[in-house]
């Protein structure tokens, strides 16, 4: 009689621990989804006078979520599984390893601190909504000062080796450090400046963007989003002050845009950008939602997906050829040619607003914000100095005069929602996106012809198979190396710029 192997007591213990681990992670995921619902509503639907109550609701939920994730039993469970990592399957090991990294970070943050930061962020956001149109930085200043102080405290709680900024950057771009990001983005900015000057030294006429009322823009946006594969059965598009995307469940993907009747392309390209985020979220393995294998790698990779659709696809000649008939039909502007459309969306000119910036100056907008964030975290810049510092950096790097704080230091929502360390991911996403675009366009047959015909399934499937489906199986750097065969850098982006603007 053959003797059968029976599981050891230790292996039985690991199996039981894994079951408990996955149950706890599922509950954490549900709490996060509920938090996303409250945040989406606050940004899109909530009446203004409800802001104080919503701040308390979000603070309570953040406190509850933090307590759930840092209860001693769960921390012990994660530590125990991390100690047994070599006995786990590859997928279990990835989920546990990432959970260990997350819990090691959040266990350092007191629950009271987490609650206060969320409440202050929610309150500051609503003050910003009212103060920005009035060009009233003084009103928002004390709220922002408190949020910046909380960010400094968070960095101290988390700890760092070289820069306080690293503790915050790591939250958005795991494993990235200032020592790598700053030189890369500074070099990119300095490389782009002479290219921008070459394209702008002689005034070039830019076709005026088409004009349309909001309802016509909404019709166009819905038509284009449906064509590229955005499902309105599991998603929706709404207006907001500052566009964003969020996911509230395995089949619930919300994107937003903002409208300008004098420039009907603004909302279209914002919608494309946010749809790229939604494609990433919807392409993650649904069976692993709430786990590392069902989560995005980093915000840099996330931004690569949004910029892939907004810029590398959306500003191509092929896409302009595709969208032009729809635009002409919806806006009743048949005299607006395909060449005019492409020239309009490809025009290079230093400007005030990051989200409306062209493909070359965009990274300079990001670098300015990186310099300011570093100055704030190094305590070299005070919040009261932000308007003047902002204006000086815009004059130095982009050569533009900032007429108001509304279009200056108050234009972006990030700082007024407590997010410091996010901005560099936009420029990293620009570089990652260029590398993925070059790879995809070289591998997908009849790439440009497909775009011109309005056939986007091949590129969407390629991204899902090569980027989205991996979840957090790799770091951002390893994912790019795996897919593109080389380390992240600026060369592919500069090649794209040269081919588009100088060939």
Summarize the structure in words.
This protein is mostly helical and 503 residues long. The protein folds into two domains: 151 residues, no CATH class; 324 residues, Neurolysin, domain 3 (Orthogonal Bundle), CATH 1.10.1370.30. It is 63% helix and 3% strand. A three-stranded mixed β-sheet has the order 1-3-2. Strand 2 and strand 3 form a beta hairpin. Helix 1 packs across helix 3 and helix 6 crosses helix 7. The longest helix is centred in the N-terminal third of the chain and has 36 residues. The radius of gyration is 23 Å and the shape is globular. The N and C termini lie far apart (77 Å). 41% of the residues are buried. The N terminus is likely disordered.
């Amino acid at each position: 009689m053959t003797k059968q192997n029976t599981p050891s007591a230790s292996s039985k213990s690991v199996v039981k621990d894994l079951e408990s681990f996955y149950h706890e992670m599922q509950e954490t995921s549900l709490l996060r989804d509920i938090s996303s619902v409250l945040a989406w509503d606050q940004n899109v639907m909530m009446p203004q006078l409800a802001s104080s109550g919503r701040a308390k609701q979000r603070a309570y939920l953040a406190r509850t979520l933090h307590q759930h994730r840092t209860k001693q039993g769960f921390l012990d469970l994660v530590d125990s599984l991390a100690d047994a990592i070599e006995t786990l399957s590859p997928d279990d090991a990835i989920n546990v390893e990432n959970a260990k990294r997350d819990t090691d970070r959040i266990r350092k943050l007191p629950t009271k601190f987490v609650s206060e930061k969320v409440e202050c962020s929610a309150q500051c956001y609503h003050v910003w909504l009212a103060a920005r149109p009035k060009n009233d930085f003084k009103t928002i200043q004390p709220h922002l000062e408190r949020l910046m102080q909380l960010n400094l405290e968070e960095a101290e709680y988390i700890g760092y080796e070289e820069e306080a900024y690293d503790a915050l950057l790591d939250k958005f771009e795991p494993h990235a450090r200032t020592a790598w990001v700053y030189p890369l983005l500074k070099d990119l900015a300095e490389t782009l400046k002479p290219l921008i000057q070459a394209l702008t030294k002689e005034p070039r006429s830019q076709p005026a963007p088409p004009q349309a009322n909001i309802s016509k823009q909404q019709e166009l946006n819905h038509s284009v989003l449906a064509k590229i594969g955005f499902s309105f059965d599991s998603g929706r598009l709404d207006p907001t002050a500052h566009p964003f995307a969020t996911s509230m469940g395995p089949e619930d993907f919300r994107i937003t845009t903002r409208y300008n009747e004098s420039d009907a392309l603004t909302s279209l390209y914002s919608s494309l950008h946010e749809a790229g985020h939604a494609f990433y979220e919807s392409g993650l393995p649904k069976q692993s939602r709430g786990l590392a294998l069902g989560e995005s790698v980093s915000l840099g990779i996330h931004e690569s997906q949004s910029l892939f659709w907004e810029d590398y696809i959306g500003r191509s000649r092929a896409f302009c050829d595709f969208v032009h008939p729809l635009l002409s039909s919806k806006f009743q502007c048949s005299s607006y040619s395909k060449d005019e459309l492409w020239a309009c969306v490809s025009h290079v000119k230093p400007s005030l607003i990051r989200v409306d910036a062209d493909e070359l100056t965009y990274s300079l907008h990001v670098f300015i914000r990186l310099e300011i964030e570093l100055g704030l975290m190094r305590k070299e810049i005070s919040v009261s100095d932000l308007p003047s510092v902002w204006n000086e950096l815009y004059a130095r790097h982009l050569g533009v005069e900032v007429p108001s704080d509304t279009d200056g230091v108050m234009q972006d929502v990030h700082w007024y929602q407590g997010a410091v360390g996010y901005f560099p991911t936009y420029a990293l996403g620009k570089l990652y996106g260029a590398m993925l675009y070059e790879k995809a366009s070289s591998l997908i047959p009849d790439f440009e012809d497909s775009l011109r015909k309005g056939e986007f399934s091949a590129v969407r499937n390629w991204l899902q198979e090569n980027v989205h489906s991996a979840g957090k199986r790799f770091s951002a750097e390893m994912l790019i190396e795996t897919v593109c065969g080389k380390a992240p850098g600026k060369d592919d982006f500069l090649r794209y710029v040269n081919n588009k603007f100088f060939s």
